[in-house]
Design brief:
Chain lengths: 298, 389
């Protein structure tokens, strides 16, 4: 391969990887926020993403909404779902052993997958064309206008999230609960409420990712959350689980690595590379790229 | 603690063993003497549920027609369906349930080759014939050069389909280089890719890129970018409709304009919904039949199907219908509903008129029959050419 065409292909793969990675990042944020507050890997998170995509689908197809209202509706809907899941499935187990909560999370995940199969049928659905997709040619590179949109919406949501976490009262409460739940409670913070909001925010971000994927790939089905859910989980671990900027970084790195592996090595190794990263990270830097090494409190 | 658990588990095991034995000794459910029970191990839910549904519709139509004429051997023929969720492990469960609980005399299905392969050993062990309408992988009926006694099919096989498309690419499209993009999770896809590569090379063509994805993937742009850089004249995508739709859409978005070709896994309206009509222009795939075929056997079937279900039958529906006709024919010739006799009669199927042509089973239990190539034009399937074996 000559150098210029190599560079061109490399740049194209970077673009592919970043747009995929920003989806992972949005989902990974939910994992990481929930883990940060109650130390739970919420395995149902990938399925909340799926439900978000379906809400977006029904809003556009049957209510005739355009993109932004549908996106907002999906985020609100999934946010409520997240709160309901937390209230019904996880809060009663707040003092139970961690393994019980983890198994419950897997149960909730299966419930959402097969419950929605029953409700909306297992057929893949196709989003109506609510956004035009015009290819933008950029000196040999091809960027789709929808890729730009994905990136734009993701960055915007991450900026909003960073603001909320760092500069609002709710964000301060979240950080306090994450730092030390018991002390936060002693300081008069309503811990249950904060955890509930954390689920709502994380779920809303996943729903946004779901709608973006639906619009971009144009195909959704009840099991669509499994693989992205796992990949986003790896992304969260890669960035340092519990650390918000880590989830964003981890997501983008995952997307880019996947694109480069399938572009320059072989598409067969793509998933192996994704999960290989998880193993390497766990071996050499268990706290993740941006994670702090905090010793478990005894 | 651990002793208690052990006791509990062994009690459960003992009780369930006893229950199984008791059921076995009791002779199981009594079969109604006015019915012949046929099992259907099908993809009712999951990735290729569209295919499962069409096939079952075709079968039900054939059964309904024959029952209206007084049934087979004076008995009504009924289909008992079990869902395999489009997964091989569930397919094995489904066929076990059909054979042991429902006591069916023959099993029809599943659609996908992987799911048939998972079910076939169970059928053989229980000496119940398994007739798949649609599984095209070569090793479905043959294992290590030995024909599986109890396994049959009603459709042509992958080597034939791969050869048809390789010849079509080389002779009708007149292309020199090809890329192959294969679903690594599917026996069907890998088998087709292998044959295509061999036959295309034999025709003087060159495979310039060979990439893989996994069923359920949604992003194909990285591999497609790589394929684009190899600059092939044609891309061969032997896969199922959900991924095909996404691949074609994303390929066109990346500015890949060359023809894309595929096989019967493309045959679903979902492809058009997902990819969009414009992206599908300049794509071709091989199939078992075309509803536009003017043959009266085809048009009669198309009319009856439309009347029953209000839609044009796809190839899967036609094959399901054909498989049901094969089975009915075999039971009539065997003059018995005993599994072993049905098996012998199925193996001797000869010159049977079915909706997609005249069908004769060869020694490997594979039908000898023709294929068609379909071209997609503005979202519509159009009949391109018919290719005889």
């Amino acid at each position: 391969m000559e150098t210029s065409s190599f560079l061109l292909q490399f740049a194209q793969q970077l673009i592919n990887g970043i747009s995929l990675g920003s989806i992972y990042a949005l989902i990974a944020l939910g994992y990481t926020m929930v883990y940060g507050t109650i130390k739970l890997i919420n395995f149902a998170h990938g399925d909340v993403y799926m439900v978000g995509a379906y809400i977006g689908f029904f809003a556009t197809t049957f209510l005739g909404m355009s993109f932004l209202p549908a996106l907002l509706l999906a985020m609100v809907g999934a946010g409520i779902l997240g709160m309901v899941i937390e209230r019904a499935a996880y809060r009663p187990l707040r003092n139970a052993p961690k393994i019980a909560v983890l198994i419950t999370a897997i149960g909730v995940s299966l419930f959402l997958e097969y419950g929605s199969m029953l409700l909306v049928t297992p057929q893949p659905r196709t989003f109506p064309a609510i956004l035009s997709s015009t290819p933008i040619h950029f000196g040999g590179l091809i960027i789709n206008s929808q890729q730009v949109l994905i990136l734009g919406v993701s960055v915007f949501l991450m900026v909003v999230l960073t603001y909320v976490v760092n500069y609002t009262k709710l964000g301060k409460a979240m950080r306090a609960v994450s730092f030390d739940t018991d002390t936060a409670r002693l300081m008069g913070i309503d811990v249950d409420k904060v955890i509930s909001y954390t689920f709502a925010v994380g779920s809303a971000l996943a729903a946004a990712a779901g709608v973006l994927v639906g619009v971009y790939y144009n195909s959704i089905d009840p099991l669509m959350g499994i693989m992205p859910g796992l990949k986003a989980f790896v992304a969260a671990v890669l960035g340092g689980i519990g650390v918000i900027p880590g989830a964003m970084l981890g997501g983008v790195i995952m997307g880019v690595i996947e694109a480069l592996v399938s572009g320059f090595i072989s598409s067969t190794f793509r998933d192996a590379a994704a999960f290989g990263i998880l193993i390497v990270i766990l071996l050499f830097r268990p706290a993740g790229l941006l994670g702090k090494n905090i010793r478990e409190k005894v | 603690m651990s002793k208690k658990w052990l006791l509990l588990i062994s009690t459960i095991v003992a009780v369930s063993l006893f229950a199984v034995l008791a059921a076995g000794c009791g002779g199981g459910a009594k079969t109604d003497s006015t019915e012949i029970k046929i099992g259907g191990d099908f993809e009712i839910t999951g990735g290729v549920a569209n295919f499962g549904k069409s096939t079952v519709n075709g079968i039900q139509l054939a059964f309904k027609e024959v029952n209206a004429k007084g049934g087979v051997l004076g008995k009504k023929i009924v289909l008992v369906i079990a869902d395999n969720k489009s997964e091989p492990s569930e397919s094995a469960n489904a066929i076990t349930k059909l054979i042991t609980q429902d006591k069916v005399v023959t099993v029809l299905g599943p659609v996908a080759s992987s799911n048939v392969l998972a079910a076939s050993q169970i059928a053989i062990d229980n000496k119940i014939p398994l007739l798949t309408a649609t599984a095209t992988a070569e090793k479905v009926t043959v294992d290590n050069g030995k024909v599986k006694d109890y396994i049959f099919r009603a459709c042509f096989i992958d080597p034939f389909q791969g050869e048809v498309m390789a010849n079509f690419a080389a002779k009708s499209l007149k292309v020199k280089t090809a890329a192959v993009y294969v679903d690594n999770a599917s026996d069907y896809s890998k088998g087709l890719a292998q044959v295509f590569e061999e036959k295309f090379a034999k025709n003087g063509g060159k495979i310039v890129a060979s990439e893989a994805f996994l069923a359920k993937d949604t992003d194909f742009k990285s591999a497609l970018t790589k394929i684009k850089a190899a600059n092939p004249d044609v891309i061969f995508i032997p896969a199922y409709y959900q991924e095909v739709g996404l691949i074609v859409k994303q390929a066109r978005e990346l500015g890949i304009t060359c023809p894309m070709i595929g096989t019967d896994g493309w045959d679903s309206p979902k492809v058009v919904e997902i990819a969009g009509a414009a992206a599908l222009n300049n794509t071709y795939f091989s199939n078992h039949y075309s509803p536009e075929d003017k043959d009266p056997n085809v048009s009669n079937f198309v009319e009856a199907y439309k009347k029953e279900y209000g839609q044009v039958p796809d190839a899967l529906a036609a094959l399901g219908y054909d498989a049901a006709l094969m089975l009915i024919d075999a039971i009539k010739r065997a003059n018995s509903a005993e599994p072993a006799k049905i098996k012998d009669a199925l193996a001797q199927t000869k010159n049977l008129q079915v909706s997609t042509g005249i069908l004769t089973l060869d020694a490997s239990h594979n039908p000898i029959k023709s294929a068609v190539v379909i071209e997609m034009k503005d979202g519509k399937q159009t009949f391109k050419e018919k290719i005889n074996p």
